[in-house]
Description:
CATH class of the largest domain: Alpha Beta
Helix content: 40-55%
Largest sheet: 6 strands, antiparallel
Mean pLDDT: 76
Number of domains: 2
Distance between the termini: 23 Å
Low-confidence stretches: none
Shape: globular
CATH superfamily of the largest domain: PAS domain
Order of helices and strands: HEEHEHEEEHHHHHH
Strand content: 15-25%
Number of helices: 9
Structural class: alpha+beta
Amino acid sequence: MQRMSDEVLGRLEQLFDVLPVGLLLVDAVGRVVYANRVGRDLARRGIFMANGGWKLEDFLKAQRDLPSVQRAECDGRSSHLSFTSMGDWTAVAIWCTPELGEEFDQTLRDVYSLTPQERRLAHALSEGHPLSEAAEAIGIELSTARSHLKNVFGKMQTRRQTDLAVLLASCALAAAATSEPARSDEEYAQLAAITR
């Protein structure tokens, strides 16, 4: 396997540092050996798993079969973590759930043709609630939520709730990005220099 030059690694690190997602590389004993800018910031503030309040490092040490997506909390904000095992290493992507506004709702309506009730359920699921809690949060019966979820799966072309969670998070991040102020010419020039 060919090694990357220090110059290429430096450019990758610069590129990773402008991403709005935290990236961590964790060794077999749960130590973070690499983190991009957002990942360092989140790790410094503390990432706590939704299932029992474990710190991320302790969770990684204790788990043998990591879930593909896991809920977490950082600074009181709902977050999601995606795990990819690479032998003795685990790559972790962390994204905080952005405030879900009109752009997210519009994306679900325009791109996926979700009905108002299906969008309400998708909102609740994107915040990391299990289906039973999502149904209760939006005031519908669990059987109705199951029916809506089946429709959402069909319209969004997914079959599992974890896949749906990743897709909804992508939609939320995309919607949040469209509502952010445009980058300046200087920021675009920096990004262009990194990727050359």
